[in-house]
Amino acid sequence: MGIVSVEQMLLKAYNNGYAVGQFNINNLEWTKAVLQTAQELNSPVILGVSEGAAKYMTGYKVVTAMVKAMVDSLKITVPVALHLDHGTYEGSFAAIEAGFSSIMFDGSHYPIQENIEKTKELVALTKKLGLSIEAEVGAIGGEEDGVIGGGEVADPNECKMIADLGVTILAAGIGNIHGKYPENWKGLNFDVLQEVNNITKGVPLVLHGGTGIPSDMIKKAISMGVSKINVNTECQLVFAEATRKYIEAGKDLQGKGFDPRKLLAPGVEAIKQSVRDKMTLFGSVNQA
Ligand code: 13P
Question: Is the pTM of the predicted complex or chain greater than 0.90?
């Protein structure tokens, strides 16, 4: 089926009370692990690519070529979107040009008028091309590729202004943070989420910072319009932990244990288990 925009998969999720996971990819192993798990669970999936990860993989074109070819060679039949994560204005055009099926334009650090103007321009372009676009209001806290936010909470009226531009999906800061949550984290702000959902009715909402949010909060957020949940750090943590165990057990020194196909295998299995757990929690299993 190739890669698709997130529009249909997320409207279906929004109307049926579940969420689709966005799992950020870093390399071939990550991509393969996420795609195989989505197919195994018959779940739609969104592959997230930050600008830093795209640069690491040597560019948007390489990422698009790899993902499209892998969907084909692995005979993936579930809906797969290739989505730019926290795109800059320039990065959004570059990802579109390279063949991404969906972009996030993160204009949350601009004054609201400038965020509106730039988002509007990108909405027109993505609509023309049949792609989907995520916009953001109220920066998500924590650090993502060197950009540091402070666990901010979006203004529901600004969310309405951006939603009314015709964006496919909307990320609103509700106290969520990228990376690990601090001990004294106050939790998600459900009052703001409720207000945002009421005022933007019909536009699926996105929850960033999916690593470490307790399951009951995830479920409550889904019941209040969250239809896409982003997970990145968790897969990195479980991959690193499994790889460390393999090396600490001296397995790389036994036989051909140094072969990258063996050395990276426990990390890949760990990513698959995390993705399985998240897809089950989000309710996207068998929703392809
Ligand atoms: P985590 O790294 O906290 O899972 O957040 C991922 C994310 O929101 C990507 O945009």
Answer: yes
Range of the domain at 21: 7-233
Q: Is 106 in the pocket of ligand 1 (CB under 6 A)?
A: no
Question: Is 44 within the bounds of a domain?
Answer: yes
Report whether 5 contacts 81 (CB < 8 A). Answer: yes
Within a domain: 89: yes
Ligand 1 neighbour 32 (Cβ under 6 A): no
Q: Which residues of 11-37 are buried (b: 16+ CB within 10 A; e: fewer)?
A: bbbbeeebbbbbbbbbeebbbbbbbbb
Task: State which of 231, 238, 239 you would mutate to test the pocket of ligand 1, scoring each by most atoms of that ligand within 8 A of its C-beta.
Answer: 231
Total domains in the chain come to 1
Q: How far apart are CA 141 and CA 280, in angstroms?
A: 26
Ligand 1 near 210 CB (within 6 A): yes
60-88 pLDDT tens trace: 999 999 999 999 999 999 999 999 999 99
